[in-house]
Design goal:
139 residues, four-stranded antiparallel β-sheet, alpha+beta, 5 helices, 7 strands, three-stranded antiparallel β-sheet, globular, 22% strand
């Protein structure tokens, strides 16, 4: 199924979290990720945003990014909002079997989850396998 031609607005971010190097080294990022997923500080926030946008762009080209089939997304502020969901294994993206994207629910993970909404907003976060399964992924 072809994806729609919605805009791709990576400037609409408001909920991203990237651990500081100190927090990462002291394992504070693990604790903080119980409430908010934390990106690995090995990449800047701008780089993580670009990677999230790449997930949408790459999926449109039908490469190795995995699309989660369900299209409906619940949005508390806009009931008519639709979206697509994707996930990527950063170990494959960066060709590094040891790459860690960040923490999700206090668990180190190589995966990121990305939502692309019909309003054009792209938003992602590090995602554990358990989190991805709650979003409809079959891992």
């Amino acid at each position: 199924m072809a994806l729609p031609t919605w805009g791709r607005n990576s400037a609409a971010y408001h909920v991203h979290h990237r651990a500081t190097k100190t927090a990462w080294e002291k394992s504070l990022a693990r604790a903080l990720s119980a409430k908010k997923a934390q990106y690995n500080p090995v990449k800047s926030m701008q780089e993580w945003k670009a990677i999230e946008k790449q997930c949408v762009e790459s999926c449109l080209d039908e490469t190795e990014i995995t699309r989660i089939p369900e299209i409906a997304i619940t949005d508390l502020h806009n009931a008519s909002l639709q979206g697509h969901k994707f996930y990527a294994d950063c170990r494959r993206l960066f060709v590094d079997d040891n790459f860690v994207a960040g923490y999700c629910s206090s668990e180190e993970t190589p995966y990121i989850f990305v939502r692309w909404n019909s309003d054009g907003m792209i938003h992602g976060q590090p995602a554990s396998i358990a989190f991805l399964r709650t979003k409809g992924a079959t891992l």
